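Supplementary Note 3. Input sequence used for the single-chain structure prediction.
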Amino acid sequence: MAKSKKINIQGTEITIISQKQDDYISLTDMAKSQMQEVVIIKWLSLKGTIEYLGEWEALYNPDFNYTEFGTIKNEAGSNNFVLSNLENINAMLIHQNLSQKERLIKLNAMAISQMKSLITNTTLKKLK
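The predicted structure, written as discrete structure tokens, is reproduced below.
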């Protein structure tokens, strides 16, 4: 049976679930502060993270949908995926009751940052 405990990191309570010899940290708990939400969203948008999650699901999920995952994996790192990422961030900012003006400022900064990252990415340049 799984056991859980909580630790406090910079004022945020994080759940750790121990099952046999493995420990699992709650990403939901980590996402409670705004900065950590952005970090997790960025991490989840990386192609390498998507590939890792797909490998894990393929190993441990007997109902894994390979076709749907292939679509998600192919979109990772594309401009469409960046747009989807910004839509997710906007939803998070709405949930935090930020005004439209505040959301626009934050989303604009994120879009600029992500576009700079895409433009300077040497792997993408090799694909052209």
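The beta strands are 3-9, 12-19, 22-25. The mean pLDDT is 78.
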